Amino acid sequence: QKEVEQNSGPLSVPEGAIASLNCTYSDRGSQSFFWYRQYSGKSPELIMFIYSNGDKEDGRFTAQLNKASQYVSLLIRDSQPSDSATYLCAAGRLRETSGSRLTFGEGTQLTVNP
Amino acid sequence: NAGVTQTPKFRILKIGQSMTLQCTQDMNHNYMYWYRQDPGMGLKLIYYSVGAGITDKGEVPNGYNVSRSTTEDFPLRLELAAPSQTSVYFCASSYRGGSPLHFGNGTRLTVT
């Protein structure tokens, strides 16, 4: 089982729709969860992070975390063509000691069609 | 603010050659990381460091070496380059373990 698994893509939605991206993780000790957006040929950029169960909203983006189900999701409302990118989910533990690092999923490619 | 700076942006190596990928950050982050990303894949951790003088292996360390003599710099050394090392390499830093990563712009390496 992969440590972080994302729903297989590619995902295609029409402009203005809601895009839903999902991620599950295997390490029950994971405490921090991130969504990165990566445009083709560019480096990943952080768009959301969440540490507590529930929803966290930032503009058109909502991250949802359910630790009991080991599930993280990202909703993009009013999707725009500029949202077309690969979205990477990452999970990690908040530690000061050696061994702390994020584990990434393989990414979900999203295309928003005008 | 420069953030995380990687050099070079592109490099072509012949099989068996060696090279060093440079990474420096100006955010005074203790944690630094090297990831590789193969086409259509996620990020795989090569090595990481929790502070100057401390390094540890990630998921895919074979064929690579690192050092961390200062807080700012975290170079990645490739010895005896192989075609399997053709990839995009990202350096990143973070304030602490598990906190958001700040990525450099990447180095695209081809080994032929």
The total count of strands of chain A amounts to 11
What string gives the helices and strands of chain A in order?
EEEEEEEEEEE
**Residue fraction in strands of chain A:** over 45%
Q: How does the helix and strand content of chain A classify structurally?
A: mainly beta
Helical proportion of chain B, percent range: under 10%
Spatial shape of chain A: globular
Q: Helix/strand/pairing class of chain B, anyone?
A: mainly beta
Gross morphology of chain B is globular
| Main β sheet profile of chain B | 7 strands, mixed
Low-confidence residue ranges of chain A: none
Secondary-structure element series of chain B: EEEEEEEEEEE
Radius of gyration of chain B: 13 Å
| First-to-last CA distance of chain A | 37 Å
Q: Looking at the chains present, what oligomeric state does this protein adopt? A: heterodimer
Question: Percent helix among the residues of chain A?
Answer: under 10%
What about the largest sheet of chain A?
A: 6 strands, mixed
Short description:
The complex is a heterodimer of chains A (114) and B (112). Chain A is mostly beta strands and 114 residues long. Chain A is built from no helices and eleven strands.
Task: Give the helix/strand layout.
The complex is a heterodimer of chains A (114) and B (112).
Chain A (H helix, E strand, L loop, with lengths): L3 E3 L4 E4 L4 E7 L6 E7 L6 E6 L3 E5 L2 E6 L4 E6 L8 E8 L9 E3 L3 E6 L1
Parallel strand pairs in A: 2-11
Antiparallel strand pairs in A: 1-3, 3-8, 4-5, 4-9, 6-7, 7-8, 9-10, 9-11
Chain B lengths: L3 E4 L2 E4 L5 E7 L5 E7 L5 E9 L2 E4 L6 E3 L9 E3 L8 E8 L7 E2 L3 E5 L1
